[in-house]
Design goal:
It contains 10 helices and 14 strands. The chain is of the alpha/beta class. It has one domain (about 1-215, about 240-335). The strands form 4 sheets. An 8-stranded mixed sheet has the order 2-1-7-8-9-14-13-12. It starts with a helix and ends with a helix.
């Protein structure tokens, strides 16, 4: 930051422009409360979904919100150049104010408002409540969802509370029971967003959820005799590789897989997003076969496409078919800093030298 203050205004503007225009991942909590709609004075035939920006428990039980909009709001406080860039981006027609919105009170402080860049950002919804089709119970606040083009959800973790203890995307099919996400319920959820173009599942990449590489057995095998000489079969020497553990194999395979996904996304022009800690890269179906959950995730997408095809061939459906592109985003945990090795106290080192000198004398 000390060097930044010495730059000219033109360079400052260029740096802030690039920093603010990185496609970001924004997390919001979406509530659909049927009990509140059924209270006296409210219209039970409609629904009022609410979107809030708040910290929520993650898979590890720690409240967090690493949304990109929070980092951008910090840029406003840097200097006049950053404030000028941010206010210019905020006032664009494609920028949408997500929080706070009615019925929540407005905030006079611009730094407390959550702005979503609809042309660049990804909106990750953490849904709480019961999904109700908008064509069954119309939405009373459609302006909250207009303009949003990209929506995603975390695949491995659904959010519940005491009022709604069941998973919001449980299966509603009569003949088949789908685990995780029911295509019928997911189709109802996508209908909340009239301008939606693409929907993604977000999955955290783990070492345990990758297929074991074929060369793991070769790396674990030893091809030397007791004297350390390479064994031979006839006149051909058997290839010998350094002996490593299965844990090291999985770690190496995990790093290479993530690097492959990242390089393919950059080379092929696939989408990528950032929040305050992580990078998210799009993974194609043909590249995700190395993951154990490949069939599960893309199976949900194929069932959803079959549902849309059936709806198109249905006469008098009663609502418009909401067909969007489907994709997968992967991420890993940010690398943790390596612990600093403990140093031996100086006093202890001196005492050891003194003991060695006494013993030698």
């Amino acid at each position: 930051m000390a060097l930044y203050q010495k730059l000219c205004n033109e360079l400052k503007l260029e740096i802030m422009q690039k920093a603010a225009m990185v496609p970001g991942m924004n997390f919001f909590v979406m509530y659909v409360d049927r009990f509140e709609d059924a209270m006296p004075g409210n219209d039970i035939t409609t629904q009022t979904p609410r979107i809030r920006a708040e910290k929520i428990m993650n898979e590890d039980g720690v409240p967090e919100d690493n949304s990109a909009w929070r980092q951008r709001q910090n840029l406003i406080k840097v200097d006049a150049a950053s404030e000028k860039v941010m206010m210019k981006l905020i006032n664009r027609p494609s920028t949408k104010k997500m929080w706070p919105r009615a019925p929540f009170p407005e905030s006079e402080n611009v730094e407390e408002n959550a702005y979503h860049f609809c042309d660049d950002d990804m909106l990750c919804i953490r849904f709480i409540g019961i999904v109700t089709a908008p064509w069954t119970r119309p939405v009373t606040n459609p302006e909250v969802f207009t303009g949003i083009k990209r929506v995603s959800m975390e695949f491995a973790f659904q959010f519940v509370n005491k009022k709604y203890p069941e998973y919001p995307f449980e299966c509603e099919c009569e003949d088949v029971e789908h685990w995780g996400f029911c295509p019928i319920v997911l189709d109802k959820f996508l209908a909340y967003f009239p301008d939606l173009e693409k929907f993604y599942f977000i999955k955290k990449l783990l070492k345990e959820e990758l297929h074991q590489p074929e060369w793991a057995v070769k790396l674990l095998s030893s091809k030397r005799d007791r004297q350390g000489q390479i064994k031979t079969k006839g006149k051909v020497e058997v290839l010998s590789l350094p002996r490593i553990t299965r844990k090291q194999v999985r770690k190496h395979h995990f790093k290479e897989t993530y690097k492959k996904f990242r390089d393919i996304a950059r080379r092929e022009g696939l989408v990528s997003y950032e929040d305050m800690e992580r990078h998210y890269y799009e993974v194609r179906e043909c590249d995700s076969e190395v993951m154990l959950f490949h069939d599960e995730i893309w199976g949900h997408f194929h069932m959803l496409k079959d549902l849309w095809a059936t709806q198109k061939n249905t006469l008098n459906l009663g609502h418009e078919v909401k067909e969007v592109e489907l994709g997968l985003l992967v991420h890993i945990d940010p690398p943790q800093p390596e612990p600093v090795p403990a140093r031996r106290p100086i006093k202890a080192a001196k005492s050891q030298k003194a003991k060695a000198a006494r013993s030698s004398s």
